[in-house]
Amino acid sequence: MRKTTISSKMLRPMSTEAVEKAARADRDAQPLTEADLRRMQRTPRVKIIRRALELTQEQFAERYHIPLGTLRDWEQGRAEPDQPTRAYLMLIARDPEHVNRMLNPGRH
Questions:
Q1: 0.90 exceeded by the pTM?
Q2: CATH code assigned at 75
Q3: 82 phi and psi, to 5 degrees?
Q4: Structural domain range at position 47
């Protein structure tokens, strides 16, 4: 097999302006409008945390002492966690095993 090499002379990097101009010319790659952003559903943060930990809703709710119905409401956008709960979720996101050990001594 022949090894192919590419010299820097062969590559012509685009300027930031050229990249933006090319992107705006692509009808399928237009930036989102304010109306688009309002229409879109955001993935609640708790769902991202739970999925990153590879836990089911039931496992996450049990491990972190959150009522299952409340967790489902957060994930489905029917309710939003209040400020203290958002701080608690941040702790879970940053050090889930430590929070688990503190809440469930002897169960891990």
A1: no
A2: 1.10.260.40
A3: -75, 180
A4: 43-103
SS (H, E, C) the chain: CCCCCCCCCCCCCCCHHHHHHHHHHCHHHCCCCHHHHHHCCCCCHHHHHHHHCCCCHHHHHHHCCCCHHHHHHHHCCCCCCCHHHHHHHHHHHHCHHHHHHHHCCCCC
The reply to whether 12 falls in a domain is: no
Task: Evaluate whether residue 2 is within a structural domain.
Answer: no
- What is the Cα–Cα distance from 96 to 98, expressed in whole angstroms? 6
Number of domains in the chain: 1
Model pLDDT for residues 20-72, shown as the tens digit of each residue? 888 888 888 888 888 888 887 666 689 999 999 999 999 999 999 999 999 99
Query: Tokens in use for 29?
Result: 């790659």
